């Protein structure tokens, strides 16, 4: 036990000596301690060249030492985050579109209640380039229950056109803005539920329809107040369109012009709520009514 005590005594004396030397050096004037700075500079000269590589190695070890922080793992996590963010934004837009569709369908039910109709969504696979005589090819045919003269809508209750040809897997749709489609009769709405003035519209070839405004559908006074820019025009043509097409949206009034040929009447320009020739998906409104009308007409468009 004597040897450890002697070792402890020597260490204590060495520590005391070092402390005393440091105190002396701290009290000695700067001009007598220049040799200490010389020794410090020598150590700095030796250690400085290797300090940068050592710090780089230290940073590399610290970054690769923790779990899940490697560059490859960080890249994968970033890609996963971006992918899920994209999916979230897509689903949010889809939910917004479906809510708007439900709102439009509920509004249409108020105008045309108790009408049995099956709606079939189908993609557009081809569109002719000429606006004046544009037709659309849709991937849905007789195998899905599509008949000639079936009504075609887009974006809820926007009337798009009518089926003019049907095959087993595809059909050809003629938009209401095509000149070959002919004219139609619409009604300018006072509000969401009450019809106002009747109008006869014909396609102009530039994606709009134009025609003159007549009297009110129910002969009520004050129908002129419904004829204004921004008013909604809906279909009201039982002669040329089936029942399930009535009150679908034709478009909104874009311009109101005087009728030079008939001063007592007004001309309006109506434009659909979207570019019909650019839609990527349509909604086929299927019912037995279209098939019965097709049979009566002997297959004529």
What does this 3D model show about the protein?
With about 300 residues, the chain is α+β, with helices and mostly antiparallel strands. The protein has a domain of about 180 residues: Thrombin, subunit H, CATH 2.40.10.340. About 35% of the residues lie in helices and about 25% in strands. The protein contains 4 helices and 12 strands; from the N terminus they run αααββββββββββββα. The chain has a 6-stranded antiparallel beta barrel. A 6-stranded antiparallel beta barrel has the order 6-7-8-11-10-9. The radius of gyration is 41 Å and the shape is elongated. The mean pLDDT is about 75.
Features:
301 residues; alpha+beta; Thrombin, subunit H; six-stranded antiparallel barrel; six-stranded antiparallel β-barrel; 4 helices; 12 strands
Set out the fold topology.
Elements: H1 2-27, H2 34-65, H3 71-111, E1 118-127, E2 136-138, E3 151-154, E4 158-166, E5 171-175, E6 184-189, E7 195-203, E8 209-216, E9 232-235, E10 249-258, E11 266-271, E12 281-286, H4 288-297
Q: How would a crystallographer describe the biggest sheet?
A: 6 strands, antiparallel, barrel
- Gross geometry: elongated
Work out the helicity level.
25-40%
The CATH topology name of the domain at 118-297 reads: Thrombin, subunit H
Q: Regarding quaternary structure, how should these chains be classified?
A: single chain
What is the helix tally?
4
| Beta-strand residue percentage | 25-35%
**SS class:** alpha+beta
Given as residue ranges, the uncertain stretches (5+ residues, pLDDT < 50) are none
Q: Radius of gyration, Cα only, in angstroms? A: 41 Å
Q: Kindly, what is the distance between the CA atoms of the first and last residues, rounded to a whole number of angstroms? A: 119 Å
The CATH class assignment of the domain at 118-297 is Mainly Beta
CATH architecture of the domain at 118-297: Beta Barrel
Number of strands: 12
CATH superfamily of the domain at 118-297: Rod shape-determining protein MreC, domain 1
Biggest sheet: strands side by side, in what order? 1-2-5-4-3-12
Helix/strand order: HHHEEEEEEEEEEEEH
- Rounded mean pLDDT is 76
